[in-house]
Design goal:
There is one protein chain. The protein is of the alpha+beta class and 515 residues long. Helices cover 36% and strands 19% of the residues. Helix 1 packs parallel to helix 7. It binds flavin-adenine dinucleotide.
């Protein structure tokens, strides 16, 4: 049990496999003596899922750690900048109904009672508009940085929208050519075990057995190792979040210079919602829905109507994806850890899947057990961490539905039924009637969504506290100073930041300064 861990075998070459391989290789130096050897095997007959275009700001740090350039990302992956998400039609579906969940924290977030001050503010503007520059930058089509801002540095916090297929190839090239990851293209047909139940090797169709010390299951939704070989069950969350299918399209722009949206736009529909993601060359648009509430045909009609109404052609090809919303009971079992879709998947509202891949790969990388003997301790902690994170993600996504006042379809009414709301979320909503979400609700070091995100969604969705406010006048004045500062920064940034498309085209032609 004290054998050294020398060779990591990753099964799967989608975004999860290549992100994990590149991070491990970058930080555990496979090219040097004593470093870990990293092998990634992917099937020539099962392509990666090819969706997953919205990310979180954490991606900047992950890519920097891996050692790729931001200019390369923009050029090779059709990447553009994402500054948050706009939710259209979620509150009640009346014309003009929208709110923003930006990536930037409210101005003065930890320093003054912003929420009571916003509630009593004479201007009666949306919460995010008063406390943050980013809704204004997005509304005016501005980029989050300038052409002279160095790679990965931000003027306003940002993540990316990119082409998922190109992203995998971009990482693969760097992982193989620069970081020394061994790439095997073969189909895995079986698993060979040690007597103790650990995986000894993967049996391939053409190249025999591929042995390793630790196996990372990045095989996508089939979860070949954790789910298939070890039988670790999926905990379905369909009773909480009903969506289990999506229809996806790639929508060309009407003109080459059409502005690129710098936020994901999530538009509520009768039986689900539509994502709209702007890349430099096209939009990625998809309708996520509950197959128990609507037929594919109905949903396709709604999707095509949305695309036509937003400048797209009416007859584009559509692709269906199905999934069971849920996550595995454990993520690390014996010498096998699942990362990516193999560990679970819930609808892409708030785009948390790649962020979870980054968090998983980072914990595996940082806590890499040196020996098999230490592995079970790390595995227990890993399982605890990610079980906690999945629960928080599910509550946060459900929050978007439970506060909606949309009528006219069973889908939205069913989402509000008390028995579909997780108990902890029900408790939180009770507390939030008395005080805003705070760090006391989310106290772990690396929470997936900070309390500010809960504030943006809660107040964007029209939630208001019950309790009379006892905040002192002097504190309200402090908050007011932060609102004025946010307005001042907004004016400055609007004057200084280029249009989003202008910046992207500049980077494609001239690049950014490397740091
Ligand atoms: C509709 C939809 C929208 C999404 N939107 C977002 C989003 O906006 N943001 C976000 O963060 N995430 C999103 N996701 C999730 C995102 O797509 C995934 O998290 C991400 O692409 C990682 O996928 P993966 O690498 O785990 O699996 P895959 O891309 O499916 O890769 C699986 C790999 O396993 C290999 N494989 C399988 N079987 C074998 C075998 N027998 N032998 C050898 N190799 C094998 C395949 O060849 C492939 O390389 C979305 C998902 C869906 C379904």
């Amino acid at each position: 049990m004290n054998d050294r861990i020398r060779h990591i075998v990753i099964l799967g070459g989608g975004s999860a496999g290549w992100l994990t391989a590149a991070l491990l290789a970058a930080e555990h130096a496979p090219a040097h003596e004593g470093g870990l050897q990293v092998t990634l095997i992917e099937s020539p007959q099962t392509p990666p899922i090819g969706v997953g275009e919205g990310t979180w700001p954490t991606m900047r740090d992950t890519l920097r750690r891996i050692g790729v350039s931001e200019t390369g990302l923009v050029r090779e992956c059709d990447a553009a900048f994402k500054q948050g998400s706009r939710f259209d039609g979620w509150v009640d579906g009346t014309p003009g109904d929208h709110y923003f969940h930006p990536f930037t924290l409210p101005q003065g977030y930890t320093e003054a009672p912003l929420v009571p001050a916003w509630l009593s503010h004479p201007a009666q503007v949306p919460f995010a508009d008063l406390v943050c520059v980013q809704p204004h930058l997005c509304a005016q089509g501005r980029a989050p940085k300038q052409a002279t801002t160095p790679e990965y540095a931000a003027v306003a916090n940002y993540a990316y929208h990119f082409d998922a297929g190109k992203f995998g190839l971009f990482l693969r090239r760097h992982a193989v050519e620069t970081l020394g990851v061994r790439h095997v293209v073969d189909h895995v047909v079986g698993v060979n075990s040690h007597d103790n139940g650990d995986i000894a090797s993967l049996q391939t169709q053409g190249q025999g057995a591929l042995a390793g010390d630790l196996f990372v299951d990045c095989s996508g939704l089939p979860s070949l190792l954790l789910g298939g070989h070890y039988g670790v069950p999926l905990r379905s969350q369909q009773h909480v979040l009903f969506n289990d299918a999506a229809l996806a399209m790639q929508v060309p722009y009407p003109q080459a210079d059409t502005p690129i949206a710098s936020q994901t736009i999530a538009t509520a529909q009768r039986h689900g919602w539509i994502w709209d993601i702007g890349l430099p060359t096209r939009r990625g648009v998809g309708h996520v829905y509950s197959s128990a509430h609507a037929s594919d045909d109905e949903v396709e009609r709604d999707l095509r109507a949305h695309v036509a109404a937003t400048g797209g052609a009416p007859d584009l090809p559509v692709r269906k994806l199905s999934f069971t919303p849920g996550y595995r009971e454990r993520f690390w079992h014996r010498n096998c850890v699942a990362i990516g879709l193999s560990s679970g998947f819930i609808e892409p509202l708030e785009a948390s899947a790649l962020a979870l891949v980054e968090l998983s790969a980072a914990m595996l990388n940082d806590e890499m057990p040196a020996t098999r003997g230490a592995m079970d301790i790390v595995a227990r902690r890993f399982n605890d961490s990610f079980g906690y994170r999945w629960s928080r993600i599910i509550e946060f996504l459900k929050l978007h539905y439970v506060l909606s006042r949309r009528e006219g379809s069973a889908y939205w009414q069913d989402h509000r039924r008390p028995e579909t709301v997780p108990e902890r979320l029900r408790e939180q909503l009770l507390l939030w009637r008395q005080r805003p979400p705070s760090r006391h609700d989310l106290f772990r070091a690396e929470e997936v969504f900070p309390s500010a995100s809960y504030q943006y969604v809660l107040y964007g969705m029209g939630f208001r506290p019950d309790a009379p406010d006892g905040t002192r006048r002097v504190a309200l004045a402090e908050a007011d100073a932060h609102f004025r500062e946010a307005a001042r920064l907004t004016r400055r940034m609007l004057a200084a930041l280029p249009a989003h498309r202008e910046l992207v085209e500049h980077i494609r032609q001239h690049g950014l300064q490397r740091i």
